Amino acid sequence: MFRDRVGRGLTRREFLWTSLGAGAGLALAGCGGGPQNNPAVQGGSAGSGKAYNGPKVTLEFWNGFTGGDGPFIRKMVEQFSSENKNIQVKMNIIVWEQYYQKVPTAVASGNGPDVGIMHCDQLGTNAARNVVVPLDDVAKTLDLKESDFYPTVWEAGLYNGKRYGIPLDMHPLALYYNKDLLAKAGMDKPPQTKDEYMGVLKELKAKGIQGSWVSPFLFTGVLQFMSLLWQYGGDLYNSDVTKATFNSDAGVEALSWMVSLVKSGYSPKNVAQDAEYTAFQNGKNALHWNGIWNIVPFGELKDLNWGVAPLPQIGSQGGAWSNTHQFVMMTQRTPDPNRQAASKYFINWISQHSLEWAKSGKIPARKSVRDSQAFKNDLPKEAAVAREVPYIHFPPTVPGIADVETASFDVAVQEAVLLKKDPKPALDEAAKKANDLLEQNRQKYQG
After folding, report:
1. pLDDT, tens digit, 9 for 90 and up, residues 258-289
2. Fewer CB in 10 Å around end: N or C, the chain?
3. Distance between CA atoms of residues 238 and 411, nearest Å
4. Distance between CA 96 and CA 87 in Å, rounded?
5. CA distance 244 to 249
6. pTM to 2 decimals?
């Protein structure tokens, strides 16, 4: 989502289609079929999903893992196919932007994949358009329940009280730190409180180092704002996502703290897109808020002495933005019970073997994998970030929610961080825009 790849990462445009949704494209995809009599809902005759005893089938599995995580999913699919001779998986990896356009079109034409991956804020739109089918009976058949995952990531697969996603991972924002620069500030561990954080910045500033660059863009400023909003006790929207609440006192405090880093000289002004990411790689930025997925590319930089930790608690409580990749099953014009049964088995197998997937810079959604000694011992950096799990927050699973964000608080964060508007009026104006869009989406998707 976002920087799902090794190297410099996705552009802002690509990210908007991956993590935050391509609502406009999906809105055109109103497709028929629906879940009626679909074996994904009714259950197939070729196995329970815990096993497959039907004839040989070939599954179509689509996803957007075109970056550094691509080799990991390829290895897992190859292993699955080698161990299950009567289920071969044909994988189609499409850059996320195109993926979220092509899937609804393929499903509408009767040529959609059997299994796919979607971010949680794509589920509502796709469910509303009958692109994906409910998976409540799949979860029941596989004996999957909330306690096998974590409440927030389990709930992220729900839309309108029905399950449409089976969680694969969580990929939250984390704190990357330059160990050499921290040493110059007299610290040998990452700051985890507001006082510690500000103490480091003051020491670094005295040595001519701007230690915490604040981006006005989605990467990484908007993700930082959302994390701080939750830390200060706020939320993006009200409980039924009919009204924006990000302009609350908590939102103003969150954005004001970010702006204060710029005004105080702890961050340069007018940070360009991805400049904070590049500065960290070059040893100029000591404390860098970015996603867990960057563990892989940073690990390839031999001259960078770095570490990663949970986000510091700047507000009154823990809080971190995250998204999640969830398995989905597509609506089929002519459902094949054998392929549906094989799909359930494939989803369950990948979930159980998701330690390999965690190596791509992810936190396993499955608790048994996350709690394993192999995860804790073999992937210490990912395990360190996993301490955030109790207080991570996901975007709401609501149709069209991506369009609301990009036109509202994305803009407010940019205006405030660029010192063009004060935080409160910027957020107030954005909230009015968001409320209009939320109402439009309600009429558009629900009637």
Report:
1. 999 999 999 999 999 999 999 999 999 999 99
2. C
3. 20
4. 26
5. 13
6. 0.90
> Are residue 63 and residue 143 in the same domain, yes or no?
yes
What whole-number distance in Å separates Cα of residue 234 and Cα of residue 21? 23
In a domain, 402, yes or no: no
pLDDT, one tens digit per residue, over 187-238 is 999 999 999 999 999 999 999 999 999 999 998 999 999 999 999 999 999 9
Same domain, 57 and 101: yes
In a domain, 382, yes or no: yes
Output the six-digit token pair for 6: 């090794």
Q: What is the DSSP string of 134-175?
A: --HHHHHHTT--GGGS-HHHHHTTEETTEE--EE-EEEEEEE
- Map tokens 């700047």 to a residue: 314
Considering its fold, how many domains does the chain have in total?
Answer: 2
Give me the amino acid identity at 195. Answer: D
Q: In sequence order, what DSSP letters do the residues of 40-52 get, joined into one string?
A: HHH--SS--SSS-
From CA 2, how far away is CA 9, in angstroms rounded? 7
Which CATH number covers residue 416?
3.40.190.10
Nearest to 402 by CA among 271, 241, 281: 241
| Domain boundary pick from 369, 393, 417 | 393
**Does any domain span residue 356?**
yes
